[in-house]
Prior knowledge:
Layout: H1 4-8, E1 22-27, H2 43-61, E2 66-71, H3 82-87, E3 114-118, H4 129-136, E4 140-146, H5 148-161, E5 165-174, H6 178-191, E6 194-196, H7 198-211
Amino acid sequence: MTSAEANYQGVWGNRIGFGRAPALLVIDFLKAYTVEGAPLYAPGVVDAVARTPELLAAARSNGIPVIHTRILYFADNCADGGVWVQKAPVMKAMVEGNVLAEFCDGVEPADGELVIVKQYASAFFGTSLASYLHTLGIDTVVLAGCSTSGCIRASAVDAVQHGFRTIVVRDCVGDRHPDPHNANLFDIDSKYGDVIPLSEAIAEIAKVKSDCP
């Protein structure tokens, strides 16, 4: 049997690149994923959080819009999470007052940055995110956050379906195990967007400012 890379070559994997107007979407960097011993603890997310301040600094210094998402449930027994919470009851930690539902230190929203509250995996499902980005004239969504196999993948698929060029920053996304992390990055890179290193993302973001009149 051929490798996945050889099997996909010439069929999947076209590059889409950055457009003229990117936004950075930081998905669910919440303490549930970084507090050791918590059910959702994911070592890969800890590493991603540590690398993301550099990406945030680049976006902010170059005038790139930054949007954050967080999962929060408000109904009794997290019923607003529907069947997803029934499938994954560990998500019931995402309620106001639980420290695990708070943003991780160092990657918190800055003053004036939009926070999208969601109840499902995709940042676009049941939210105003797509409308907001279209209103800003955004054509490229740069993704950081967690988890790669869950909310990153779901958001990447929805981003391209809403008409955005989709970029995932490999160094700034994480998961609890490397196998689903790598498999989903391979699939996103093949079919839905471009998976690129942090250094390339920063270089592309810098071009946006230099290209401005």
